[in-house]
Amino acid sequence: MSQWWQSRGAVALAALAATIPLWVVTIPPLIDLVGHIGRYHVQLHLGDSPALQANWAYHWRLIGNLGSDLLMEPLGRVFGIEGGARVLAGLILILTITGMARLARAAHGVLPATAWAAFPFAMAYPWQYGLVNYCLGVACALHMAAHYYRHPREGGDPTPVVSTGGQFRSWAPAFAGVTMGALSVLLWVVHIYGWAVFAVLIVARTVAGRPVKVWPRAIPGLLPLGLPLLLMAALSYGTAGAAAATLGWFDFGYKALALTWTLRDQHQWFDMGCLIAAMLLIYAGVRSKAFVVDRSLGLAALFLLIALLVLPYQLLGSAFSDARLWPVVFMVALLAIRPVEATGRLAAVIALGAALVFGVRIAATTAGFAQYDTDYARHLKALDLMPRGARVAVFTEFPCDVPWRRPRVDHLDGVAIVRRDVFTNGQWDVPGAQLLVPLAARGTRYNSDPSQLVMGCGDLRPALAARIADFPRDRFDLVWLIGYRPATLPRYAGLTPLFADDRTVLYRIDK
Known about the structure:
Order of helices and strands: HHHEHHHHEEHHHHHHEHHEHEHEEEHEEE
Structural class: alpha/beta
Strand content: 5-15%
Oligomer: single chain
Low-confidence stretches: 151-172
Shape: globular
């Protein structure tokens, strides 16, 4: 007899509940997404705004980082840019949680109680950081991999089979290979990591339970997974400018620190406690006879952990290339285990405890998001004094000792692009990896991210003064300081204050 945690209705309710924090905000306070909405605005409105045309360019091309850009075409037009971003962020949560449930049910035959312990990782730090294309790619990979896991394997072949007249027959190998290759390319277009996670899950499904010495025999059947590599070679992907930058190999100290950030959100003690509880559950699942481990998902979790340890900090211009895998490692590891008695007392305790923790995390995130929304509304009053199409030099405090609950104003200038068609220096300009091209300050180091971040340790006011003295004033009309207390700042020559609140100041550049 099935229990409540195994029902599709309960999973659907959990997925919907995960979106509650987005119901209380105007702008989803996901760090990078606050900046991305500026790009979405240019994408959708460049053609009808002379102010945008003067300062931005946008060129569609095929890259492995297009998921949200493609989705915002309909979402942004139906719900508006800010509303579309909220729908996008919520859709990612729904897809991730339902994808985890589908994969676990496919692997085990039933939805194990332990899968509920994986659900909070949908809202892990990569989502909180606003890595929306990455998170969308992972969510899609879970769903597509579930399709392969849900069919009987024949000789270790992951090729799915279909039912005909009550009997199972293999799909034609050529057609199956085309399908696998097409799914790989589709996931690569959403985000390159979506394809990578899908490939790991399929490879693990193929070789699990077989001696290592026979693993090479599986290579011919897995070759379609490599189709995006041919596409990348044809496009010379990762060979243009900053997009080719790869650095930070084998920084195990950073990887360990990033592990502690896996569930980073509002309250350090609670986030760390939830992470430790997940670790203990995985340990029990592997060591205790009260649990069984699906070999395919267990091997996939191991492969993902190895990839995390081997990958550099920055790959092809994308930062956090290693650390962003921590939540996926936990997801897959938790999905791999289940109590021997799927509906027994232990399963009931795990499901209830996991659901309660998930509910508390949703409540904590909702309260935190409501506060962010209040803070954003106060800071964004400065936009009332920004002329449409103005060029704004943004300088945001970015200390090395940033608190656990981050202010999340790193890219607040993205909202100014949406609401005032302005130019700011906080958008990304990564040739080969981004479609947006900032124009107003080209040829200077104040044209794009990270020129808006004033980084360092201790008192950052001297570093801010150096930036203000250095930036090209002839390229900008306004200066917007974010994160600094106005009462602690000196008067800057040639800058006239127009607006200030507790943490921001807007100046007009005297010309």
